[in-house]
């Protein structure tokens, strides 16, 4: 009887799926059946047991039971927005074609649609956005030659330089596998035994480790890439996003705590509201360029992502501007299911031999085949906006095949005489680097783990250095003495004053704990006060 009523006229006497006289729309199941009762399951009698054939209810609940997919193993918390990238056509006063043939950069004013996802790294999907953590800055360019993903962070360097270490680094920063609580001791246990991480720790524990929001931060590709021109010649490049009108702003630990007490979604909210009211954030994309060789004259290896390429030596050259001007319509479809990867390059852009980049390039698409599914590239957010013609068909959740207008739809292989689908002509000479070396497992030669950490420490403003020392002392105070000693030694190698201030801060904290006796653990707030006294 109920079904009969549904199929003839809807609740307001409208056609089943149509618009009612008062502008209402009819709610339907995912099978398109109009829903006449969304409040009560079907039961035998008013108080009786439910029946098995409650199709609408079982569909509703079983879909709900599956509404989450595995969250990203890192960068789980994020916010996204759509926008546009506008090319300048030049780099450092020269036509950009001298360095890269990538089409999106060539003409001044050429626009490419983009989607950006910002994120924090360590904690889960709804964790506070005030935490000390690098911030992700991942950009998908939907170019005429297919997609280019520039998967970056706000900070310009990283903790490690070899992809082999990434799972260990992340395990040390994720919650303890037993208590499920993040532990400063576990973080510094890894860092003190990883001297190349001293530089990143210096940024991370300073205010640069808590950007004020996603709009007011920089972005960087971190790893070294290559550009290739029409003659097949390459240069090394690093990418940087510099915020334009909105500027850069970071928070002290105390400022972050004040925000967190009231709002743990402040960065997502800030981005969404700015775009909603038309205050579109903008970034300029800059590159640093080096010739494609080993650069023995430098005291660091240009393929080492724990190092900055000094700005004075290798200037930031603007190549275009990005504006974010549209919020997502559905968070899950667009932000959660978006999938970025360092392997996703277009013609004219290439990889370098940076060992982190090589490892990352395997990892991203691998995790996405699991996290989103093997057909993640069919989803609108991930699909390129140019025509896709592929012979890779099937697989879970496959729902479409793109055909060229007059192609033979029976042919899902290549080469073929029966089909018109052929390989593309080359856009320029191939870049073919030559290798001659033994196959080894080795660290790079120019490790130079501490010099730039010291420079970064000295380059900070006073308030940034003070906050850095406070934050380090507060966290290291919770660590085993052996970890403290190793960290002090590493900071001292970076800069004597740096090591001395951390050591003094720790001595004071230990003394105040002794004064209180074994049960009088200092509160974090007391620790901050102690360290501030030390630093002035
Ligand atoms: C996300 C691996 C280093 C930036 C991810 C994800 C994995 C991963 C598995 C989750 C991706 C997904 O579920 O879609 C690695 C490995 C690294 C590494 C193995 C080192 C060997 C880095 C570095 C950066 C970075 C150096 C900064 C340049 C990001 C960003 C995301 C991400 C921004 C989030 C992308 C998004 O918003 O969806 N990484 N990562 N990662 N990684 Fe890495």
From TrEMBL:
What GO biological process, any one, is recorded here?
Answer: response to hydrogen peroxide
Where is the stretch described as Disordered?
Answer: 1-48, 505-536
Q: From start to end residue, where is composition biased (Basic and acidic residues)? A: 505-517
Which UniProt key words apply to this protein? Heme, Hydrogen peroxide, Iron, Metal-binding, Oxidoreductase, Peroxidase
User: Heme: is it a keyword of this entry?
Assistant: yes
Q: Give start-end positions of Low complexity composition bias.
A: 6-29
Q: Which Pfam families match?
A: Catalase, Catalase-rel
Enzyme Commission (EC) number: 1.11.1.6
Positions of the Catalase core domain: 28-422
Q: Classify the source by domain of life.
A: Bacteria
Q: Which CDD domains match?
A: catalase_clade_1
The record's InterPro entries line, in alphabetical order, gives: Catalase (IPR018028), Catalase_AS (IPR024708), Catalase_clade1/3 (IPR024711), Catalase_core (IPR011614), Catalase_haem_BS (IPR002226), Catalase_immune_responsive (IPR010582), Catalase_sf (IPR020835)
Q: Quote the catalytic activity from the record.
A: 2 H2O2 = O2 + 2 H2O
Please list the residues that make up the active site. 75, 153
**Matches recorded under SUPFAM superfamilies:** Heme-dependent catalase-like
Under the heading SMART domains, the entry gives: Catalase (SM01060)
Q: What are the binding positions for heme in this chain?
A: 364
Single GO MF annotation: catalase activity
What cofactor does this one take? heme
Can you tell me which family this protein belongs to?
Belongs to the catalase family.
**Which purpose does this protein serve, as stated in its record?**
Decomposes hydrogen peroxide into water and oxygen; serves to protect cells from the toxic effects of hydrogen peroxide.
Its recorded name reads Catalase
Q: What is the lineage of its organism?
A: Bacteria, Pseudomonadati, Bacteroidota, Cytophagia, Cytophagales
Q: Which gene encodes it?
A: katE
């Amino acid at each position: 009887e109920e079904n009969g009523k549904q199929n003839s006229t809807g609740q307001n006497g409208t056609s089943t799926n149509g618009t009612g006289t008062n502008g209402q729309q009819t709610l339907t199941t995912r099978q398109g059946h109009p829903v006449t009762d969304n409040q009560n399951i079907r039961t035998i009698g008013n108080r009786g047991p439910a029946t098995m054939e409650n199709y609408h209810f079982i569909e509703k609940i079983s879909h709900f039971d599956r509404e989450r997919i595995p969250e990203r193993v890192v960068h789980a918390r994020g916010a996204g927005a759509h926008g546009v990238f506008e090319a300048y056509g030049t780099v450092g006063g020269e036509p950009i074609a001298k360095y890269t043939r990538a089409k999106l950069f060539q003409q001044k004013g050429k626009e490419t649609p983009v989607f950006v996802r910002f994120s924090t790294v360590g904690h889960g999907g709804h964790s506070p956005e005030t935490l000390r953590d690098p911030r992700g800055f991942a950009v998908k360019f939907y170019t005429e030659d297919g997609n280019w993903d520039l998967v970056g962070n706000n900070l310009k360097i990283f903790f490690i330089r070899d992809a082999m270490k990434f799972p260990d680094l992340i395990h040390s920063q994720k919650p303890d596998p037993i208590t499920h609580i993040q532990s400063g001791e576990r973080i510094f246990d890894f860092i003190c035994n990883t001297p190349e991480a001293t530089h990143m720790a210096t940024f991370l524990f300073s205010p640069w480790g808590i950007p004020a929001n996603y709009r007011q931060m920089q972005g960087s590709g971190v790893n070294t890439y290559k550009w290739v021109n029409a003659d097949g010649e390459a240069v090394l490049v690093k990418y940087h996003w510099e915020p334009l009108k909105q500027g850069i702003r970071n928070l002290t630990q105390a400022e972050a705590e004040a925000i967190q007490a009231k709002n743990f979604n402040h960065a997502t909210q800030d981005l969404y509201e700015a775009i909603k009211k038309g205050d579109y954030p903008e970034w300029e994309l800059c590159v640093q360029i080096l010739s494609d060789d080993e650069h023995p004259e430098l005291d660091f290896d240009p393929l080492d992502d724990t190092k900055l390429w000094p700005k004075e030596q290798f200037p930031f050259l603007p190549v275009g501007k990005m504006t974010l001007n549209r919020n997502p319509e559905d968070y899950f479809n667009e932000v959660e299911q978006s999938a970025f990867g360092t392997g996703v390059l277009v013609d004219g852009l290439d990889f370098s031999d940076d060992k982190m980049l090589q490892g990352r390039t395997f990892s991203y698409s691998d995790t996405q085949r699991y996290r989103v599914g093997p057909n993640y590239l069919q989803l609108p957010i991930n699909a390129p906006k140019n025509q896709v013609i592929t012979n890779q068909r099937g697989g879970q959740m496959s729902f479409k095949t793109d055909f060229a207008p007059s192609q033979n739809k029976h042919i899902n292989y290549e080469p073929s005489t029966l089909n018109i689908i052929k390989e593309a002509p080359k856009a320029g000479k191939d870049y073919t680097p030559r290798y001659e070396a033994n196959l080894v497992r080795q660290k790079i030669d120019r490790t130079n783990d501490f010099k730039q950490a010291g420079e970064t420490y000295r380059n900070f403003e006073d308030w940034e250095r003070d906050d850095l020392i406070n934050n380090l002392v507060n966290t290291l105070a919770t660590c085993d003495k052996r970890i403290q000693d190793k960290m002090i030694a590493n900071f001292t190698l970076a800069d004597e004053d740096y090591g001395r201030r951390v050591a003094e801060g720790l001595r004071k904290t230990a003394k105040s704990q002794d004064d209180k006796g074994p049960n009088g653990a200092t509160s974090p707030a007391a620790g901050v006060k102690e360290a501030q006294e030390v630093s002035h």
